[in-house]
Amino acid sequence: MVKKVTKAIFPVAGLGTRFLPATKSVPKEIMTLVDRPLVQYAIDEARAAGIKEFIFVTSRGKGALEDYFDHSPVLEQELRSKGKTELMEILKSTNMDSGAIAYIRQHKALGLGHAVWCARRLIGNEPFAVMLPDDVIAADKPCLQQMIEAYNETGGNMVAAMEVNPEKSSSYGMLDIGDGQTDGELVKVKGMVEKPKAEDAPSNLAVIGRYILSPNVLKNLNQLKSGSGGEIQLTDAIAAELTQGNDVYGYRFKGQRFDCGSKSGFLQATVSFGLAREELRDDLLKYLKSEMAEQSTPTTTRRETNAPSIKSRF
């Protein structure tokens, strides 16, 4: 019988340098898509999948992230006194019960594998999920819930997978899959390669930030030395499962993934999630159409109509 997955690790120790200067004082994970921080999307997805224990691997300067999940008595009292019950319910969804959340420090930036290894004592001998808040996935059924439902049938290890263009291979862990597995949600993995060149990629299936892993992966991490990029790679520890005769599956999830670790992906997600909100859609769509029309207007015309381009405003 497959053991139930109730614990999840959230590696959030990164400095978020691609978003400087904002991340000089604000953890990247609490930057907002519309009106919810990135980390809230991950927490909501984990809750929907049945996760009960939330383990954050953090670093120095992440105090605001910890405060976000704490109760705010003054704010709660203010909303209560003004009868703002709808906002009260939204606020409650951000609170975490005592004992449900834990924080572990990663003192050195040694990679994703090392971040997961830091949480080993809180995982013990149980299967666990790993969620990267940078990867925000819009789906009718949350991605991790899809994966756990599949995992309950297969056991082993499972990674979320999506097809990428060959030139993007060097940014991902890539899956080597068996012949005849071009269709279907679940694929049997034969091997994994971390950030290969396009010509060396074994397939076009890339691993993205959702994992369900055996506790044996933590033992593998304990034996690893630094790999690609001088970091301890989680991909290498999962690949070691294959050499030990343990199953690894790739799961083609249903949904749209946004790479919110990049500025472009973050902006795309902001627009997409904004358009998905009924109360925002019309105004946002009207603005986007107007802006696109203005951007396609010759510069001389814009000057004549006293309508500066967006570049000249920032």
UniProtKB/TrEMBL annotation:
Keyword Cell inner membrane appears in the UniProt entry: no
Cross-referenced Pfam families: NTP_transferase (PF00483)
Record keywords, A-Z: Nucleotidyltransferase, Plasmid, Transferase
Record GO biological process: UDP-alpha-D-glucose metabolic process
Top EC category: transferase
Region (Disordered): 291-314
Catalytic activity: alpha-D-glucose 1-phosphate + UTP + H(+) = UDP-alpha-D-glucose + diphosphate
SUPFAM superfamilies: Nucleotide-diphospho-sugar transferases (SSF53448)
EC number(s) reported in the record: 2.7.7.9
Domain of life assignment: Bacteria
UniProt key word Nucleotidyltransferase: yes
GO molecular function, one term: UTP:glucose-1-phosphate uridylyltransferase activity
InterPro entries, per database record: GalU_uridylyltTrfase_bac/arc, NTP_transferase_dom, Nucleotide-diphossugar_trans
Nucleotidyl transferase domain segment(s): 12-270
Protein family according to the UniProt entry: Belongs to the UDPGP type 2 family.
Protein name: UTP--glucose-1-phosphate uridylyltransferase
Species assigned in the record: Sulfitobacter sp. TCYB15
